[in-house]
Amino acid sequence: MSIAAPVTTPDDEAQLVEAVADAGARTVPLAIAGGATRLGLGRPMQTAESLSTANLTGITLYEPAELVISARAGTPLAEIETTLAAQNQRLGFEPVDHRRLFGSQGTPTIGAVAAANVSGPRRIQVGAARDSLIGLRAVTGAGALIKSGGRVMKNVTGYDLVKFLAGSYGTLSVLSEVTFKVQPSPETEVTLVLNGLDDDRAVEALSTALGSPFSVTGAAHLPAGDGDVARTLIRLEGFADSVDERMKDLVALLAPYGATESLDADATRTLWRAVGDLEALGAPDDAAVWKVSVKPSDGPAIAAAARAAFACRVVYDWGGGLVWIATETGGFDAGAAVIRDAIAPLGGHATLVKASDAVRLATDVFQPLAPPLMDLTRKLKARFDPAGILNPGRMYAGV
């Protein structure tokens, strides 16, 4: 999917409000983009014009002592991470970079992280991006400026728009500013590696590690393939003395699963970046890629069903609860029938993260909703975007 011309690029929030209100008045469907790195995610859209937040840049508030940062939506993610790193802080949910996956050349932005709820391997410990998002400013499809949340975590009554709009993929509003809670960076990190485990045994080992008191911050499994031995990965972070002690105890706990080797901090950072950015999946450029979320114990069954039906590559993250499947041979639906039939009795959901335009038009990209939920989705779309101009059809046909 490409940006539709002409492209409007507001320089400030007032211009953003004006641009959206104008498109609404003209009933002109807009393709909403930040850094344009994930345009291939979602259903292809028929839009007449585009709206980019690329010029809405700059950190508007950063208080290291309060562990909070605010920035305009188009601010490059790299700028946020560099600013935080200078104070030995980070975005705890470990946002990932999918430019390699989609073959895109844009610049990831902090607004897109919130809009797509982009969360990496550390989600198993700190939650998703929406769990760290504590405030936002946005413009609805009606051209109304809304503000929700603030600079501190707090209980709320009524609608929690911060959590609600995170992960709505620009279909309900255009984010203009976001506020995230951040966390201190660890003194060091290490990864324990178990070699040669099959999928079931690997998930069992990951569950054992995650169920321990040793504060695991990464739990992934890379099955054997292309001559490589299977590797089961467990990450620990924190103060050096604490990491050393926890590592020794975890090695002892995992002894029934075989001998472990350890990777130092530099190797750990490189490895987990490859896991989060899906470099470890090794998907060919023309492969279709699925993101399947199930109970960790059910992950191997989903992978087995896919492997029985077509050639594919698999990576497990989040202790086995997130299964990435890449295939070049899944047929006209990229394996949708096989994968969704496999998860139907188990619960969970499957998202077709990447495929050709033709496949994404013919196949439900996001997990199909039950009729009552689809009815609610349509009503929410109508409430926030009455003219239906914001990323129309990106998540569900006709919505």
Automatic annotation (TrEMBL):
InterPro entries tied to this protein:
FAD-bd_PCMH, FAD-bd_PCMH-like_sf, FAD-bd_PCMH_sub2, FAD-linked_Oxase-like_C, Oxid_FAD_bind_N
Q: Which GO terms describe its molecular function?
A: catalytic activity; FAD binding
Please provide the record's keywords in A-Z order.
FAD, Flavoprotein
Q: Where is the FAD-binding PCMH-type domain?
A: 1-185
Descriptive protein name: Glycolate oxidase FAD binding subunit
Q: What is the lineage of its organism?
A: Bacteria, Pseudomonadati, Pseudomonadota, Alphaproteobacteria, Hyphomicrobiales
